[in-house]
Design brief:
Arc Repressor Mutant, subunit A, 5-stranded mixed beta sheet, binds zinc ion, about 20% strand, Nucleotidyltransferase, domain 5, 3 domains, about 400 residues, single chain, alpha/beta, globular
């Protein structure tokens, strides 16, 4: 990257302000951009002209709402400027989506996940990417970012999947695995981190800077946790601590990760089933439990079946104790419960609240607000768009500057 003069740096910052305003506000007029960014009219004219010339944004005509007067000129991202691919990996399937630079979904398909190691896993993904590009007649070089999510443990600074329910401890280096055909920026996120991102974004849109923080708890075969909180700079920081594999009970029940006593080994779907059917706690966990089986168990718990009730309560307790530690470390925050297991929240709630109440902060300040948020897949997808499009904006502006500077 060439060294930049201070005037160049200011222009770069101002350009970022403009593309971010367009990302948040949708189509905007010159005056609206000025209101949102605080930049002078002359600066905005220079930047929008540059961005138009670089085919990053375009002018669109909008009919005046009164039906009279001149149509307004609005700026928007040029949709075909570049593309984003979203890959969502779950235990059962991999979903591929193609999204344009404006954030519009163009194509989407899912493929059942096949058994096999990392090598065949990456081969399958490369073939699906090729199919995705061919169906929309775009070339790999037009794809600027590939945003991937999985449950499990993700490296924070590289697209490296360290541990996943799907492949276990076999690490996956996605950036290396998709080269040389795919040179796009590869982003990898923990799935619950994306949910926390999308929920924080929704809250911020409604509440503005009054929004401070939230915890997202994802229930299902595995247990995920995301924390969104406003940092010192005023930005929202999102993290996904390894909550599901945090210790609940020393030398306790056997977890899918191989350790004993993790929260997941009490609250994951397989753990609830194992408990309800009184299977020994050191039995190797099932690889995958279909949701209807857990629903059936929930139905019998609601009809008063003692062991089924006990299993959901144990799950609630493990989650509640874990959350009490999270809140003791981070302060009181509202909790959003999501994931396929959120539909059994009525059965988990008692144990969860009891566990939470063990924290002094909860005893003093009361239980935090707890809400159940359905439609996790939609939140995961929104989280992908929010994060990846912001990265694409940055990359595209930097690339433009490097071109003119070099
Ligand atoms: Zn574990």
């Amino acid at each position: 990257m060439p060294a930049r003069s201070s005037t160049e740096r200011v222009r770069l910052q101002n350009s970022m302000l403009v593309v971010r305003a367009l990302r948040r506000g949708g189509r905007l007029s010159h005056t609206e951009i000025a209101d949102l960014t605080g930049l002078s009219s002359a600066t905005i004219s220079a930047i929008t002209a540059d961005l138009e010339h670089g085919r990053v944004i375009e002018k669109q005509e909008s009919q005046a709402t009164t039906g009279r007067g001149r149509p307004r000129m609005l700026f928007a991202q040029r949709r075909d400027s570049c593309y984003l691919v979203v890959i969502i990996i779950s235990s059962e399937a991999i979903q591929y989506s193609l999204v344009d630079y404006g954030g519009k979904l163009i194509d989407q398909f899912s493929q059942p996940r096949e058994a096999g190691g990392v090598g065949s896993f990456l081969t399958v993904i490369r073939a699906a990417l090729e199919r995705l590009a061919q169906r929309s007649k775009i070339t790999p070089s037009e794809v600027r970012a590939i945003s991937i999510s999985s449950k499990g443990l993700v490296s924070t600074d590289e697209p490296l999947l360290l541990w996943s329910p799907v492949l276990g401890g076999e690490q996956v280096d996605f950036a290396a695995g998709l080269q040389p055909e795919w040179t796009a920026k590869v982003l990898l996120s923990n799935e619950t981190l994306l949910v926390a991102d999308a929920l924080a974004e929704q809250h911020e849109r409604k509440e503005g800077t009054r929004f401070r923080s939230l915890v997202t708890l994802s229930l299902g075969h595995s247990i995920g946790l995301g924390i969104a909180s406003r940092g010192g700079t005023g930005n929202i920081d999102i993290t996904a601590p390894n909550f599901g594999h945090m210790l609940h009970m020393p030398s306790g029940a056997l977890c899918r990760c191989g350790a004993r006593g993790c929260i997941e080994a009490y609250a994951g779907f397989y753990a609830i089933l194992r408990n309800a059917f009184e299977v020994p706690k050191d039995t190797i966990p099932a690889k995958f439990v279909p949701l209807p089986e857990v629903d059936k168990l929930a139905a019998s718990a609601r009809h008063g079946h003692r062991m089924a009730n006990f299993a959901f309560r144990e799950a609630g307790l493990a989650l509640g104790y874990g959350l009490s530690r999270v809140l003791s470390l981070n302060g009181l925050m509202p909790i959003a419960v999501t994931g396929p297991g959120a539909r059994h929240y009525d059965l988990i709630r008692g144990g969860l609240e009891e566990g939470l109440s063990q924290a002094q902060i909860v005893r003093m300040q009361g239980l935090p607000a707890i809400s159940v948020v359905a439609d996790e897949p939609l939140l995961v997808f929104e989280g992908h768009l929010d994060r990846a499009l912001a990265v694409m904006d940055e990359e595209i502006i930097m690339a433009g500057f490097d071109r003119t500077a070099g």
